[in-house]
Specification:
- Keywords: Membrane, Receptor, Transmembrane, Transmembrane helix.
- One of its GO terms (cellular component) is mitochondrial outer membrane translocase complex.
- This is Mitochondrial import receptor subunit TOM6 homolog.
- This protein has helices at about 15-25, 30-50.
- The chain is mostly helical and about 60 residues long.
- The chain is built from two helices and no strands.
- The mean pLDDT is about 75.
- It starts with 14 loop residues before the first helix and ends in a 13-residue tail after the last helix.
- The chain is elongated, with a radius of gyration of 23 Å.
């Protein structure tokens, strides 16, 4: 008796596959280089947000309504 070859399920392509790969990349706890890249990327994103949203002054008095 020979077992029929198992068909692997079709892998999703495109955006879903990219998101899955990014999540696996970001959550791999055993790789220092990956963690370093993720942390640098998050830092760069924070700097970008801070520079582009710098026109908001959260300490200014709010208008009285």
């Amino acid at each position: 008796m020979s077992a029929a070859p198992k068909k692997s399920p079709a892998k999703p392509s495109g955006v879903v596959e990219w998101i899955n790969a990014a999540c696996r990349f970001a959550t791999d706890r055993n790789d220092f280089r990956r963690n370093l890249l993720v942390n640098l990327g998050l830092f760069a994103a924070g700097v970008w947000v801070a520079r582009n949203l710098s026109d908001f002054d959260l300490m200014s008095p709010q208008p009285v309504t």
